[in-house]
Amino acid sequence: MIRQRVKNIIDACVEQGISEGIWSEAVAGKYTIEVPKREGQGDFSTNMALVLAGIHKGNPRQIATQLVSLLEKETEYIEHLEIAGPGFVNIFLKPMVWQHALFSVFEQRGKFGLSSVGTNRKVMVEFVSANPTGPLSVGHGRQAILGDAIARLLTATGHDVFREYYFNDAGRQMRVLGESTRARYLELLGLPSQFPEDGYQGDYIQDVAREMITEHGDALKDHADVAPFTVKAKELIFKNISGTLGRMGIIFDNYYNEHTLYEKGLVDAVVADLRSKDLVYEKEGATWFKTTAFGQEQDRVIIKSTGEPTYRLPDIAYHREKFRRNFDWLINVFGSDHIATVPDVLAGVRALGYDDSKVTVVLHQFVTLLRDGKQVKMSTRKATFITVDELLDEVGVDVARFFFMMRKADSQLEFDLDLATKESQENPVYYVQYAHARICSILRQAEDKGVQKRPIIEIDTTLLVAPEELQLLKSMNSFPAMIEEAALGLAPHRVIFFLMELAGQFHSYYNKHKVITENIALSQSRLCLIEALQIVFHNGLHIVGLTAPQEM
RNA sequence: GCACCAGUAGCUCAGCUGGAUAGAGCAACGGACUACGAAUCCGUAGGUCGGGGGUUCGAAUCCCUCCUGGUGCACCA
Fold it and tell me: Disulfide check for A494: which of A105, A111, A486, A524 has CB 3.0–4.6 Å away?
């Protein structure tokens, strides 16, 4: 907000310069205004002179001097100006500008930081979408948290968000799941059995088999159809998955079942439509989709010679349905192992006449667990992976959420269990939460000591002049823009970094300045400051699904 | 072989999409509580931003190339 105001001032001065014929209008819109990294370089700075000099081979410092003489007339916000380095114009604002930021925090309270950029934009976030063949592993955990945090951020910025889980309950994998279950069932009954070569080896399959024995005894031992086994396994595993998601506070608006695509004839429809556009052909008994027409190296099979579709076909049908359901933005959160499917699906929707630029795929890299400084080996085949449930048992929901959000999706994530289980010191989760709890504690303390809390209008905010206080005010002021950038950039890790930074600033401030002192007016101003901080911590933590404890 | 991602302090990672003297947390070392909560703070030390070219006023950031690691490149999902 303040940034925008400063930008307006600069824009006006540049306009004036252009109309007076000092500068060419080629600069308009080319320069930026930013927050300098280093102290002493002002609250904001602009590279306008450098940009203009670049266009006309002029002298940047001379242009900067002209700009400064125009800006100098703006005395309401600007305290003073400096020309620095190669030709940056550094702008120092009056402290009052920042002190005023407190007002909007208190005006908006729980809504401070929320925005409306996404108003009237209907967006679907598809995430997790794990096959119901086993419990969620830590990789799914990252995806679940990432997807949920993205959804929360988008909600916070006014989007109409719909969370969906694509439930893959058709095809070969389900059959193998049923066969695995039957084999365990027979095994537990002491009967001869043959475990499928690529079967699911996890203990949870035996749990399903045990459940079936309780329900049916040995009545199914000669049953030719695997269906009852598949159905039961799917049911129990799904219950397990949704239970895990529930523990993490993740609620989907819809589970989209793959089999409904077949029931409604939507899969066949895709083939027919592609065929009518001459994008499908038969070869070696299989049906191929001409993905080479969309820049790929080779065509892809969509129906195997056995008559079974490959995974891409229902995927394309599913995405077409998403378009038909009128979303403005389709976000898919996938593990990086699904990278190969992305171009196929995009080619599919494009072939069907939809705008694939509405689809954004967030690919996240893998998670490695670290215990005692060593990597924990995991194998899905042998079912030696660590499940999300086990992780939650060990570190708790807040810590798991926080750690999964700490890295940008593009980076591999190293989850250090030793650090995560530490209840103190270096655990960054508590570092942030402690800042919030500490503020709550000071506010309680003030109440006990009888220091009156006063409404913001009666507070003398000009008493907040310590460098640390101004820094805190600036950080708070940048909170809404940060949320917006994190949301639109689908980057929850930015919120985490912001909160850690703010917590650091607060802890330093706390150690340097006393909030409650003999000086009543100053104490009240500082109480206001930290109450505003409390609001920011609370909102920031909640926006990404973390709790803000009052005490720890 | 091809595609995508990553390579930044001893370790784990940021770096606001091209800005000024590259940052933080751990780890190391030295300090600060008869208390607004020490789950905290202050200080010291630590760098050829993987290598090499290029683009320009200016590059960790953009382009090319090479090296290393991860993930894919099925008539598995």
Answer: A486
Backbone phi and psi for residue A85, each to the nearest 5 degrees, phi listed first: 55, -140
Q: Name the nt closest to A166 by C-alpha to C1'.
A: B77
In this prediction, residue A423 carries a pLDDT of 63
Is the Cβ atom of A374 within 7 Å of strand B at any atom? no
Nearest nt by C1' to A283 Cα: B75
Q: How far apart are CA A89 and CA A49, in angstroms?
A: 8
User: Per CA to C1' distance, which residue is closest to B37?
Assistant: A438
Nucleotides of B under 7 A from a protein CB: 2-7, 12-17, 19-27, 32, 36-42, 56-58, 70-77
Which window residues (453-492, chain A) lie with Cβ within 7 Å of strand B? 485, 489, 491
- Order of strands, edge to edge, in the sheet holding A413-416? A374-375, A367-371, A413-416
| Helix, strand, coil % over all residues of chain A, rounded to 5 | 55, 15, 35
- Three-state secondary structure of A86-153: CCEEEEEECHHHHHCHHHHHHHHHHHCCCCCCCCCCEEEEECCCCCCCCCCEHHHHHHHHHHHHHHHH
Nearest residue to nucleotide B23, by CA–C1' distance, is A37
Interatomic separation, CA of residue A417 and C1' of nucleotide B44, rounded (Å)? 30
**pLDDT on residue A295:** 84
Report the pLDDT value the prediction gives residue A107, as an integer from 0 to 100. Answer: 96
Task: Give the span between the Cα atoms of A164 and A166, in whole angstroms.
Answer: 6
Nucleotide nearest to A419 (CA to C1'): B26
Long-range contacts of range A349-356, CB-CB < 8 Å, 24 or more positions apart? A349/A316, A349/A319, A349/A320, A349/A323, A350/A294, A351/A274, A351/A277, A351/A279, A351/A289, A351/A293, A351/A294, A352/A270, A352/A273, A352/A274, A352/A316, A352/A320, A354/A320, A354/A323
Which residues of chain A between 171 and 210 are close to nucleic strand B, CB under 7 A? 171-173
Alpha-carbon span A100 to A21, nearest angstrom: 37
Minimum CA–C1' distance nucleotide for A496: B14
Measured from Cα to the C1' atom, the residue closest to B7 is: A411
Delineate the domains of chain A, giving CATH numbers in brackets.
2-93 (3.30.1360.70), 122-167+250-364 (3.40.50.620), 172-247 (no CATH), 425-543 (1.10.730.10)
Residue A514 beta carbon within 7 A of nucleic strand B:
yes
Pairing of strands A329-335, A122-126: parallel
Pairing of strands A300-303, A44-46: unpaired
* HEC readout, A414-478: EEEHHHHHCCCCCCHHHHHHHHHHHHHHHHHHHHHCCCCCCCHHHCCHHHCCCHHHHHHHHHHHH
Predicted interface score ipTM higher than 0.90: yes
Any strand B atom closer than 7 Å to A375 CB: no
What residue ranges of chain A have pLDDT lower than 50? Answer: none
